[in-house]
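Q: Hi! New to this. If I give you a protein sequence and the SMILES for S-adenosylmethionine, can you show me the bound structure?
A: Yes, paste them in.
Q: Okay, here:
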Amino acid sequence: MLRVEQISSKFPFSEAKNSMESANHGRDYDTYTAKMDAAVEAKVASLFSRFNIFFDGMVLVDAGSGTGLIAERIAQECESIGVSPQVFAIDISHAYSEFFSQQQSITTLFGDAAEQLFPDDSVAIKYYSTSGHEIASFGGGASRMVTAIQNSFRELQPGGQLLIRDFVKPENTGSILMELSETNGINQNQISLDTTIEHQSLSTLALFKQFHREFAGGNAFAFEEITIDGKTLIVLEPEWAYEFYMRKEYTNNWKNEIHEKYSYWTLAEAKDILEVAGFENVQVEPDPNQYMLSNWLEGQVNLYQQNQAGTLELLPFPATHMVISGNKPLR
Ligand SMILES: C[S@@+](CC[C@H](N)C(=O)[O-])C[C@H]1O[C@@H](n2cnc3c(N)ncnc32)[C@H](O)[C@@H]1O
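A: Thanks. Here is the predicted structure of the protein with S-adenosylmethionine bound:
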């Protein structure tokens, strides 16, 4: 049995906590937690169905747990198959502490989940559910998640499993064409310079231009506007199309979300990074979010490429999310 005193709550990378707290200033947590918690069952299914190690007393770590609801549901899933785990939910933020008391069967702790918080060889399964992109965004970039993986490797017992479910960078580079609605809200030429921008009232095209203006201080990526077959199209790299269309519904918390880079690894990069860290049995799978695809993307954002004849061909959306799994070798 792992005792809480054996777990460190260190915040050695206090910059991550500070930059996250300032980015989250003014966040509407009711909307934010409601959106996160709405996706709980899909996330639990994605993670739990991939667990490949079970025994009574196994230490399970939810790294970047938010409200702790996923950890709670994972504990219930284990109990439903006759396994009693010790579940620890770690988060860097105190913003969710009012939700914690409702979770009876898990231990909630504060700490930076990129650091080693658990003793060597003590954890059976550690998972990062939609938290890796925040660890990267507020911890100095994608390399912070590489550090998190290396530290997780130390914490895991031989045979232990690491799972990461998160956004995924589109594999393709080069340019694609993106068509966005100009008529579902206010357009750029209707916004005067001295007006405070109400992001939720903008058309999707105007919201994209606002994204380009605001993300990472502005002009973080290049785009061009062209017209083909009477359609206004944005020419840009798939990574930036993804960064925009994956956040276009988050206008309630736009000012906070703009500080986050959602995608940090492609499927292939994720596999390499785990293998280099020493993991074996590494599986990296697309995990499409059907709700997002059906309700926010298909028919609302069109991605195209132009064929040799110059005709526009509709492209499928790249994976919205991925699940990465790897085991620490037995010896
Ligand atoms: C998008 S929420 C995901 C919450 C939950 N895991 C889920 O899937 O619904 C990201 C969470 O990661 C936490 N987080 C961000 N950076 C962190 C870090 N360095 N260490 C621990 N938690 C962190 C945030 O406070 C937030 O609760």
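A: The chain has twelve helices and twelve strands. Let me know if you'd like me to explain how to read the tokens.
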